[in-house]
Design goal:
54% of the residues lie in helices and 10% in strands. It has helices at residues 7-13, 22-33, 37-40, 55-73, and strands spanning 43-46, 51-54. Helix 1 (7-13) packs across helix 2 (22-33) and helix 2 (22-33) packs across helix 4 (55-73). The radius of gyration is 13 Å and the shape is globular.
């Protein structure tokens, strides 16, 4: 599942607006990619501490932060 979430899918969620709350972002990306709720809400242990995270949401946030960094540095404008 995790490899289905891409920067492009996250970026596409912002086509209509540049302001989305996290929940709206997750909803839009899941809808675009056809990710079912049971996959979307699945959690698993992450890192040495083994704290459980919703993997889909974690990946969306990761790509969102990568895109923000790209905008700050101009990386996507090249």
């Amino acid at each position: 599942m995790n490899d289905r979430v891409t920067c492009e899918a996250v970026m596409a969620a912002f086509v209509e607006t540049d302001q989305l709350g996290n929940q709206q972002l997750f909803d839009e990306v899941a809808k675009q990619l056809g990710i079912p709720d049971e996959v979307r809400h699945a959690s698993a242990p992450v890192g040495r501490a083994g704290k459980r995270y919703k993997l889909f949401e974690r990946q969306c946030r990761w790509h969102q932060q990568s895109l923000r960094q790209d905008v700050r540095t101009g990386a996507r404008n090249e």
